[in-house]
């Protein structure tokens, strides 16, 4: 087995181990060109297991901080996404194709029923 592929596989598993990252990628893979605020609200809703309309500012702020300071930079470092907070733009990058099959496996087993019921990636 090529050690580089093992390292890439381990990196992909590590990246997708965090639910907030997976939730963000599900939304981006659906082509939801929403603002960061909209993405934060939906990720928070899934993370907190409540409807998006009921997520309070504290819940949104916690998710926003995690995305901006941890998850977005990490996904960008691995070439999965590109983002610019000034323009409020987050898009999938070429590296997404490498983890898409694994992400689909995660999607099919998520605890949040709404995610499992969404179309395949």
Runs with pLDDT <50, length 5+? none
**Nearest-angstrom radius of gyration?**
14 Å
How are strands sequenced across the largest beta sheet? 1-2
| Helix/strand/pairing category | mainly alpha
Task: Tell the overall outline.
Answer: globular
Distance between the termini: 28 Å
Give the fraction of residues assigned to helices.
Answer: 55-70%
InterPro entries: DUF7344, WH-like_DNA-bd_sf
Protein name: DUF7344 domain-containing protein
Pfam families: DUF7344
Domain DUF7344: 14-89
What does this protein structure show overall?
With 121 residues, the chain is mainly alpha-helical. It has a single domain, classed as Orthogonal Bundle (Arc Repressor Mutant, subunit A). Helix content is 64%, strand content 7%. It is built from six helices and two strands, in the order ααααββαα. The chain has helices at 3-16, 19-29, 36-48, 57-77, 96-109, 113-116; strands at residues 81-84, 89-92. The protein has a two-stranded antiparallel sheet with strand order 1-2. Strand 1 and strand 2 (89-92) form a beta hairpin. The longest helix is centred in the middle third of the chain and has 21 residues, at 57-77. It is globular, with a radius of gyration of 14 Å. The two termini are 28 Å apart. InterPro entries: DUF7344 (IPR055768), WH-like_DNA-bd_sf (IPR036388). Residues 14-89 form the DUF7344 domain.
Primary descriptors:
single chain; 121 residues; mainly alpha; Arc Repressor Mutant, subunit A; two-stranded antiparallel sheet; 6 helices; 2 strands; 64% helix; 7% strand
Concise description?
The protein is mainly alpha-helical. Helices cover 64% and strands 7% of the residues.
């Amino acid at each position: 087995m090529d050690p580089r592929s093992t390292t890439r596989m381990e990196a992909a598993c590590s990246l997708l181990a965090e639910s907030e990252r997976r939730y963000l990628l599900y939304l981006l893979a659906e082509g939801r060109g929403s603002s960061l605020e909209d993405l934060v609200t939906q990720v928070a809703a899934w993370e907190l297991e409540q409807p998006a309309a009921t997520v309070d500012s504290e819940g949104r702020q916690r998710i926003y901080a995690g995305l901006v300071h941890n998850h977005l930079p990490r996904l960008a470092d691995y070439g999965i996404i590109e983002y610019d907070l000034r323009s409020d733009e987050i898009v999938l990058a070429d590296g997404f194709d490498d983890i898409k099959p694994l992400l689909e496996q995660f999607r099919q087993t998520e605890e949040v029923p709404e995610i499992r019921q969404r179309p395949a990636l």
